[in-house]
Amino acid sequence: MQRLRCFKSCWQLLRSSCEGAAKRATSSRCYSHDPSSFGLLFDIDGVLVRGRTPIPAAKQCFRNLVDCHGKYKVPVVFVTNAGNCMRQTKAEHLSQLLEVEVSPDQVMLSHSPLRIFTQFHKKCVLVSGQGPVEEVAHNLGFEDVVTIDMIREAYPVLDVVDHNRRPKDFIPPNKDLRPIDAIILFGEPIRWETNLQLIIDVLLTNGNLGNTWSSTQYPHIPVLACNMDLLWMAEAKNPRFGHGMFLVCLENLYKKVTGYDLKYEALIGKPSVVTYNYAELLIRQQAEKLGWNTPVKTLYAIGDNPMADIYGANLYNRYLQASKHTKAKVQAKSCGGGADPTAQSVDDHHKMTSAEMGGATVAYESREDLPEACSSILVCTGVYSRDQQELPSDPAQTVTEQHIFHGHRDFRFDPTLTQPSFVVQDVKEAVELVFQQEGWPLE
């Protein structure tokens, strides 16, 4: 219940800031078209860039998305499972690559929703990943942060896989390190063996690294993980290991040592619903800055990964339909309507696990301004390629050797959610398709 109150209060705070932005917004356009009611969610790796190289179609498509003053015609938010930098850094990088201005308010990294997990902000948290993880954690609201390097310095004999990093002539004494209350996994680290070892140490000592291991200490301290991508696309011809692969290693090591399943307090990033809920709030904020007075009715999520981008967009669409269904049931009940004999089966179909919700204990909202739908658009410039893999022809097909489930362990596999609303060659075709769907001219 306390988590629910924290979640809702932060959600209301973010929503009120969006409404405030609308009152300050002004609109100036050099094209003649009535504002529509849709927004675009762009994945980055495999859609706009491959590593540090922009995909040619990306620059072309953004010429259709800005007016003659360089202002966006439609709300745009970049939703990536990357999380090894600050939003400002990612925005500057995208601005340079796409040759259009991208503001930090348009960038959503995998860890961005951690801002609403305020119940952990005053706790001592261990952060794992690469890049400025300590700065990122403080920026998200965490006040007491411990890094893997701090643990290595405090306990020099814990990290011994690499013989060159072991103490040589003498063993330095341990330093006092405050007990760790929770673990936050931002993304794949550089030295997997070090992070795997020390995270297991923290879990099995209940956050007190001076203690001996105890597998009877279960459940363990809370673990929050961002970015579940098993694979991602860089410059190489074939996909590379992502943070999801690191999580597979950690989960299996913990299970092998203790016999218990590693449990997550929250799984954040695509495809969890909390990520798309947060992205939708950013889309509304962008719409209000454009001076749009009508609610955003449709979101178009453009991605290259069927198990992250497409699955997530379709899962969020299911959430929207369930929210609409719940609202209709409440209205019918308040009007004295009879019971719907199909209601229970519909409810069962739309039920979601805590993992799919992103660990956020929040019921379906009956907001008037929720989008009506979220459409998924799959491009062929990243993880998915028509030449290398086929989407299941039968949506009810189960996992086979040809269609292996690459999603996270805690997500139920529903083959229907891997089916995109549309399949196009690249992001330029995706934007053109959206404009056609919405009746906008291609300029």
TrEMBL record:
TM spans (from-to): none
Cited Pfam families: Hydrolase_6
Presence of the UniProt keyword Signal in the record: yes
Cellular component, GO, one term: mitochondrion
Biological processes, Gene Ontology terms: glycerophospholipid biosynthetic process
Record InterPro entries: CDP-alcohol_PTase-I, HAD-like_sf, HAD-SF_hydro_IIA, HAD-SF_hydro_IIA_CECR5, HAD_sf
UniProt entry keywords in alphabetical sequence: Signal
Family under the similarity heading: Belongs to the HAD-like hydrolase superfamily.
Full protein name: Haloacid dehalogenase-like hydrolase domain-containing 5
